[in-house]
Amino acid sequence: MSAAVPDLERFLKRRSFIELSARDRAEALLDPGGYHELLGPFDRLHSPWLPMQGIVPQEDDGVIVARGRIDGQPAVIAAIESAFQGGSMGEVGGSKIACALELARQDHEQGIPTRPVLLLETGGVRLQEANLGLAVIAEIQAAIVALRRHVPVVAVISGMVGCFGGMSLAAALCSHLIVTRQARLGMNGPEVIEQEAGIEELDSSDRQLIWSLIGGEQRHAVGLADTLVEDDAVAIAEAVRDAFRRGLPKQPRSEQVKLFLERLAAIDPSQPLDGKALRALWDQGATA
Amino acid sequence: MNGECRVESRGQIWFQALTGRNGLVPGGPASVRRGDAPLGKETARFLAVVPDPQNRFPRARGGEVGLQEAWTLAKYVRETIDADANGTRRPIIALVDVTSQAYGRREELLGIHLACAAAADAYATARLAGHPVIALLVGRAMSGAFLAHGYQANRILALDDPGVLVHAMGKEAAARVTLRGVAELEELGETILPMSYDIRTYAKLGLLHKLIEGVNADAPSAGEVERIRGELIAAVSDARSSPNDLRSRLSSAAAEENRAASIEVRRRLTEQWSVA
Amino acid sequence: MEMIKLDYPAEETVPRRVHVGVVGSGDLEVLLEPSNDGQAHVSIRTSVDGYGAIWKNVLDRFFSRYKGAAAIEINDFGATPGIVALRLQQAVEESQS
User: Fold this and answer.
1) H, E, C per residue of A222-262
2) Reported ipTM
3) What's domain A8-282's architecture?
4) Which of A109, A205, C3, C94 places its Cα 20 to 30 Å from the Cα of B241?
């Protein structure tokens, strides 16, 4: 019984990370006191394409770039605001992320150990900026691959939007991926799969099924995410610091080609497969 | 979109035309073609994803980039990097005709996002290792499939042909998601450049190294194939003499005009970064 | 989308610029900063057309109490008048804190 009391206390003190704005999320992950935003709302670099289509823009285009420190080391956080246009990636917001990662790489080349963190709450490409959304996502991916050699690129998916589309590839390229139980990570959103492949392939209204396939807990259990953490700002900040303390992974997940081709060869697509069965096949002994 | 299999895809047609063979790899999936062929004075590695009606993953039978295709692309690209680690980095040519990523429950469960990331990673790694990576768009270059196969190239070339399409989402699906009709979307694409599906409008965004006119994309003549080879050689040489990142996409006159916001973001963020 | 511009007389200076809110469903962002001519200027970009009179009403009431020489820019995504008033109040409080 005595052990339950601190848990309860901790639960009551918990500050939900999910309920924070992107700006507050970024601030929550940086050491206290040093938060400094780049290209903020007063720089007025909003999407040139949304007003042309009669859609109200946001002055920071839904992406917060913040400098500060993590564990005393220089850091940059790029946080996507999911409340604006579903966290979709447009030309401006995507360029902010790509450029921040490129500048972090230049820092490393000059001996400045800038730590990069991405907060990915996004449905992927902003369809109103379609081809430029796709182009900037390719640029973000290029920047992650180039930076990842110098320093772990840490991503957090906390929910509730989740991380989809081209940005799910960006998440998969990161050195260390932190998820909550409320996070979802998938390339194609459930609604898109239902539309493209039919309801017999996937019923997007079956929430339990969706979570069992692409939910944070499942992704962690099969080794497609590195840390499973509670929806708690303090716990997530600790998980981020811990990710940097661990240093570069031996081999980033997206380089483990042989392992995944072997795993794929062992799958029989004519047989049913669910989340639980995959856990048995790919169990990595929960490396949280 | 699924299950739509043309007799011979553009990916196959161009693979055959440029390498003189079908590119089937023993032990590998029939949907990913790999082959080395002369390109100018050197040998280049060609890669293509093509439809395979017998694909053991049903959602990837129509030329989609599925789990197997993406991981196999990653494998073939990485093999090339390893083989050339101590010598001349040979050009890698991605022939792009990909309808979409594979949409399926099994695909999501097994991490198609990671598979496609692995392919993008391999291409980016090849580029950073000094391989000139050239994407030649001969058909559709859609969405996540293009991210996995082609979008990490040093240089992107495209045939000026109505069947060459670049977009983030198929027209019908985009119409449903944005609550607009297909006709309205097409009209929008004429004024909102990034919304367009056709390759000539795409070229205005500055992302293409070159739009190549006057080539029959479905049945190229020997002379046309020779011309494309020449364009590939020129692109390889251009890539070798430039930085191995993607900055060339932002430096063309077209980019200065229609990606002004991207350029402005980079200029001002860089300024503020050094002050911070 | 509709653009609305309103001007008001002012008496006090604005200590510092602030940003509050988000352009999300039923919400808005407010950018408030010192104006350069001693008057107050409001520039509204709203996703909902045809509510000019209501915007004027909300802003008239706001400026009946607030006398700051502020340049206020609003990007609105269908906020109710109550939410608009709350965000404006929040912006003023933060600019004075």
Assistant:
1) CCCCCEECCCCHHHHHHHHHHHHHHCCCCCCHHHCHHHHHH
2) 0.96
3) Alpha-Beta Complex (3.90)
4) A109
